[in-house]
């Protein structure tokens, strides 16, 4: 080891130049990361393969500017130098540096890090007077030469750079070490990777055509980081995440942070940032620092409904009470992501150079500003959706600069719109790779999968001793959970068992399949497809607890007092089960109801006596299970468990697995029975892992909601004569139970939806981060809770299974070399899973909105009776009302005053038209006055609305609701509306799309094949976009708003 010195010239917090001398140690042996190593380097972790034609060493400029190209998996054998990585950290910030670190950690990418500045023979001290860029280039070239010599010339080394002087200087110095440009590298070595060539062209144009300095600045400069940090500590500045309003993106944004406080100002409502100038180039999601404006300049949030998507021109009468208002003075962290934009038609105003044209592309997300893109394909990309990334936003520019990444397709096409939804929510789900599928066990007719004798010796065998059965939606193939219940000898004790698929037996921690499942974190459900977290051989076969086959399970079994259900003993462990019956909900309920026509498929071939005996045994088990679940639910109800409004819709499939209808799940007692058993298992597993690992267990908490969020619920209920007590979950549950209107059951349903909207999000967390009083689950009224029962579709459950395995048999886990994640690692994983879950919910909601628009887009709202429906008013605004349409599960605004100043006037028969007049808002109603008289719209009134589609070429289509009559709609039979309307909607969308698919097939020969990028997001193996994979459990076409998905949100 050699000691040397490294001299750094830094700036102090006061701006003074400081010369820092640091000790720098050089070593002869530094890991090279290649399997061709002849020097026995200590290469732990990833190593580069030896069967490549070359290794590639990118210089600093390439890593800083072209990292996206190096992320292509096709580019193998990439050696990142320490010099380049440090340059990324210093010039691009923490976010880009973490992106590079994750790339180096990812085993799916053939790339390694070489610590060239600690290697004795590759280290290059900086010469006096040498500029930093030339020194960095010299360091990278020296590392490339060392690599070639270290591997004894067995592998050619290609250094890629955009520095023409470096190519001329180093290009012919050493045989076996080639120095070429990125463009030449891609052309000579990877001509088939078209995406990389297009991305290179896009990034190069963006770098070459950065906007020149304008004579005047459009925005003020951001303050230095040290000034921002000092201001935050002193309380002068406020740190938070910028949240731009979806309804008023041009003008309204806010800063909201948990525990936001200021010495002299109440900031519990957050800080308003009014207008684009005050945002100072901050983009939605950026972590910013704001300075409060004088109180005389404070504004309130606009409370009026936004008509259209133009700039809001609300006056003070349309604003809430003034709130703290500020301006952005600095940005601590840019949270830029991939954005989908639409290239507008050319209008002659776009700037143009010899080789490219600068286009102001319009983002799909209205909260994102227009992005200036330089491209040579401006004409070809008109009206196309394109994925872009922002590169910079200078103070002299009104808009950020960016570059295109890939083209999705023409705007408006179904596949383009679905891909847009996925990308906008950060969901990337390529088909499972061959390497991942090679890790899967084989189960085929020629080589059927069987129980491993070694596993049989270790596990408790329940195949002969227990009656195990599953209850799931009809047609379900990914069966996560099964149940068992029996009376123990003596009759004083019951044994209840919950048996969950043992996914962790097949998914080894750290394997490629495990890494992919962790990356996805959940199964993504869209309206016409789903993207599984695990390969089908597991999710639909070996991990699915199907009837009549042997399967591995993780079981929780309780000995309960038969009368009080007091827990006598709990057993956790690995088991082998064979499910005797695979029931669906309707069949299980029919058996409980004693319906004679109920047929159990597994008993169809038995003789009468044996059939009756087994049927009686099964029915008895179901009745016992129902009895147990009732008491368990009663226990939680006494603790304050909430029963809020949620809608779950399941898809009916034909033999070709196409959707034939979408039917809302009818409320059956057996639903609650199964759910209660799963909640009970999750609660007891949470207790076990938390008690065993108090500082590193993955639990799920649901914080109590903030009281001010209940204001709409309390005020709306008061207008109907109900009092809602929100002080505790028990008080809220009781008051909601009492808020019943015998004339209109929708009133209670809407109140529960409002209560759900006020709830905070349930989150995964590591127990080492929170005190135990923060573990509480508000919605379920449980002191500890986790997710254990769905490991096929939730990665959190896989983590919990591993924790439970370590808790019940620590010696076995230690013997297998498995170590638990630290508190910090577990918290990072929990945050990742939380983010992916929220992305899945947003994508599902957007997918549902897309299909609702598809249904109505082909219909004439003026003549088609299906476009007219009954709606219920649930909120009053300054210029309109918010309504819920039960028939289609649609929520949206209905205006009673338009931009021209006209108001809705109702005639004697209730029919409405626009006339000149005025509007007056009250707490529980809104009135319009015109020449026809006064028309009043009250909370919970039923009105008739017309549904049409508002087409937005740059954004997603949206539904437009217009009042037709202030009386309830009488066009359809009330009893048939809820289910038949939804079924009709989906069937019609499917029919139209199948016709389009058929037409597309007829033109297939004349059309080019799908590009790799277009295929990347399609996992359906048939051209029919409406072919589902196994089962859509969480598809909700009715009301996917957060207010109507309480079960998914709080459980």
From TrEMBL:
Q: Which reaction is this enzyme known to catalyze?
A: Exonucleolytic cleavage in the 3'- to 5'-direction to yield nucleoside 5'-phosphates
Entry's localization field: Cytoplasm
Q: Is Nucleotide-binding given among the entry's keywords?
A: no
Q: Basic and acidic residues: which segments have biased composition? A: 1001-1019
Q: What is its EC number?
A: 3.1.13.1
Pfam families for the chain = OB_Dis3, RNB, Rrp44_CSD1, Rrp44_S1
The residue ranges of the RNB domain are: 459-810
What does the entry give for GO biological process?
Answer: gene expression; mRNA catabolic process; rRNA catabolic process
Record keyword Cytoplasm present: yes
- A GO term from the CC aspect: cytoplasmic exosome (RNase complex)
One molecular function GO term is: exoribonuclease II activity
Q: Record's InterPro entries?
A: Dis3_CSD2, NA-bd_OB-fold, RNase_II/R, RNase_II/R_CS, RNR_Ribonuclease, Rrp44_CSD1, RRP44_S1
Chain residue ranges for the region called Disordered: 304-325, 999-1020
Co-factor(s):
Mg(2+)
Top-level EC class as recorded in UniProt: hydrolase
Keywords of the record: Cytoplasm, Exonuclease, Exosome, Hydrolase, Magnesium, Nuclease, RNA-binding
Q: Gene3D superfamilies annotated for this entry?
A: 2.40.50.690, 2.40.50.700, 5'-nuclease, Nucleic acid-binding proteins
What family name appears in the similarity comment? Belongs to the RNR ribonuclease family.
Name listed for the protein in its UniProt record: DIS3-like exonuclease 1
Q: Which organism was this protein described from?
A: Collichthys lucidus (Big head croaker)
């Amino acid at each position: 080891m050699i000691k040397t010195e490294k001299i750094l010239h830094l700036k102090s917090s006061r701006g003074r130049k400081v010369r820092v001398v640091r000790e720098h140690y050089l070593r002869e042996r530094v890991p090279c990361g290649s399997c061709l190593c002849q020097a026995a380097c200590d290469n732990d972790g990833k190593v580069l393969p030896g069967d490549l034609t070359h290794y590639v060493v990118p210089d600093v400029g390439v890593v800083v500017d072209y990292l996206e190209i190096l992320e292509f998996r096709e580019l193998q054998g990439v050696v990142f130098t320490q010099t380049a990585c440090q340059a990324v950290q210093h010039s691009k910030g923490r976010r880009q540096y973490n992106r590079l670190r994750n790339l180096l950690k990812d085993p799916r990418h053939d790339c390694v890090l070489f610590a060239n500045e600690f290697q004795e023979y590759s280290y290059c001290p900086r010469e006096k007077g040498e500029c930093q860029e030339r020194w960095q280039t010299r360091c990278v070239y020296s590392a490339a030469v060392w690599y070639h010599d270290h591997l004894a010339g067995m592998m050619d080394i290609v250094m890629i750079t955009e520095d023409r002087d470096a190519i001329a200087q180093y290009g012919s110095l050493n045989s076996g070490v080639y120095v070429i440009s990125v463009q030449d590298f891609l052309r000579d070595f990877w001509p088939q990777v078209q995406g990389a060539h297009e991305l290179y062209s896009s990034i190069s144009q963006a770098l070459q055509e950065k906007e020149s300095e304008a004579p005047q600045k459009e925005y003020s400069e951001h303050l230095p980081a040290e000034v921002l940090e000092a201001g935050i500590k002193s309380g002068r500045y406020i740190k938070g995440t910028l949240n731009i309003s979806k309804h008023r993106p041009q003008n309204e944004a806010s800063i909201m942070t948990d525990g936001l406080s200021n010495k002299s100002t109440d900031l519990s409502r957050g800080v308003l940032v009014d207008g684009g100038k005050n945002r100072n180039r901050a983009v939605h999601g950026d972590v910013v620092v704001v300075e409060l404006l004088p109180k005389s300049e404070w504004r309130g949030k606009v409370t009026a409904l936004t008509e259209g998507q133009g700039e809001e021109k609300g006056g003070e009468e349309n604003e809430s009470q003034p709130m703290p208002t500020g301006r952005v003075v600095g940005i601590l962290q840019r949270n830029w992501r991939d954005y989908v934009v639409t290239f507008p038609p050319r209008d002659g105003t776009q700037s143009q150079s010899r080789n490219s044209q600068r286009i102001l592309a319009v983002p799909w997300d209205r909260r994102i500003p227009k992005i200036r893109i330089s491209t040579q394909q401006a004409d070809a990309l008109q009206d196309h959706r394109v994925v872009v990334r922002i590169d910079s936003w200078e103070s002299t520019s009104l808009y950020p600069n960016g570059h295109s990444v890939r083209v999705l397709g023409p705007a408006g096409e179904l596949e383009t719109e679905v891909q847009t939804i996925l990308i906008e929510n950060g969901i990337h789900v390529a088909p499972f790779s061959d390497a991942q599928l090679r890790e899967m066990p084989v189960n085929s007719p020629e080589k059927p999968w069987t129980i491993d004798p070694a596993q049989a010796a270790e596990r408790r065998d329940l195949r002969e001793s227990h009656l195990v059965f599953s209850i799931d939606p009809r047609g379900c193939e990914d069966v996560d959970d099964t149940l068992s219940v029996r009376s123990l000898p003596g009759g004083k004790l019951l044994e209840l068992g919950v048996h969950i698929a043992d996914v962790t037996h097949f998914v080894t921690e750290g394997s490629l399949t495990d890494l992919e499942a962790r990356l996805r974190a959940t199964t993504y459900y869209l309206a016409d497809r789903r993207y599984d977290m695990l390969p089908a051989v597991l999710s639909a076969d070996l991990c699915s607890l199907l009837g009549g086959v042997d399967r591995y399970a993780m079981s929780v079994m309780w000995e309960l007092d038969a009368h009080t259900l007091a827990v006598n003993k709990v057993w956790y462990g690995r088991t082998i089960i064979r499910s005797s019956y695979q029931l669906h909900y309707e069949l299980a309920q029919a058996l409980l109801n004693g319906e004679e026509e109920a047929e159990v498929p597994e008993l169809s071939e038995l003789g009468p006596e044996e059939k009756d005996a087994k049927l009686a045994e099964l029915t008895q088990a179901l009745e016992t299970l129902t009895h147990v679940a009732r008491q368990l639910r009663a226990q939680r109800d006494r603790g304050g468990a909430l029963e809020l409004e949620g809608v779950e819709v399941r898809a009916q499939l034909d033999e070709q697995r196409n959707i034939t209808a979408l039917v809302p799940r009818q409320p059956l007692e057996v639903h609650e029975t199964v759910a209660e058993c799963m909640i009970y298992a999750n609660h007891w597993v949470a207790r076990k892992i938390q008690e065993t690992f108090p500082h590193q267990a993955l639990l799920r908490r649901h914080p109590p909601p903030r009281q001010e969020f209940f204001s709409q619920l309390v005020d709306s209920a008061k207008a109907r004569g109900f009092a809602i007590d929100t002080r505790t979950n028990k008080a809220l549950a009781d008051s909601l139970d009492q808020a019943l209107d015998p004339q209109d059951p929708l009133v209670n349903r809407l109140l529960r939806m409002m209560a759900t909207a006020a709830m905070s999000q349930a989150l995964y967390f590591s127990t080492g981060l929170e005190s135990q009083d923060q573990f509480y689950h508000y919605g379920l009224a449980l002191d500890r809770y986790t997710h254990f029962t769905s490991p096929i579709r939730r990665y959190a459950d896989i983590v919990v299974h591993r924790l439970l395995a370590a808790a019940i048999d620590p010696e076995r886990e230690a013997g297998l070399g498995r170590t638990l994640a630290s508190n910090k690692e577990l918290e990072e994983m929990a945050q990742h899973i939380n983010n992916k879950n929220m992305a899945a919910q947003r994508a599902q909601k957007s997918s549902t909105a897309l299909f609702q628009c598809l249904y109505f887009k082909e219909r004439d709202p003026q003549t088609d009776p299906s476009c007219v429906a009954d709606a219920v008013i649930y909120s009053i605004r300054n210029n309109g009302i918010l309504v819920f349409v039960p028939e289609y599960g649609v929520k949206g605004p209905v205006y009673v005053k338009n931009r021209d100043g006209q108001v809705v006037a109702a005639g004697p028969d209730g029919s409405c038209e626009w006339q000149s007049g005025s509007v007056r808002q009250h707490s529980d109603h809104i009135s319009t006055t015109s020449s026809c008289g006064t028309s009043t719209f009250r909370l919970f009134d039923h009105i008739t609305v017309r549904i049409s589609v508002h087409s937005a070429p740059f954004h997603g289509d949206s539904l437009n609701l217009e009042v037709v009559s202030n009386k309830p709609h009488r066009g359809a039979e009330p009893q048939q509306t809820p289910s038949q309307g939804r079924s009709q909607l989906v069937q019609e969308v499917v029919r139209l799309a199948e016709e389009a698919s058929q037409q597309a097939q007829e033109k297939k020969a004349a059309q080019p094949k799908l590009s790799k990028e277009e295929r990347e997001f399609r996992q359906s193996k048939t051209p029919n976009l409406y072919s589902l994979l196994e089962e859509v459990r969480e598809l909700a076409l009715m009301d996917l708003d957060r207010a109507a998905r309480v079960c998914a949100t709080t459980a």
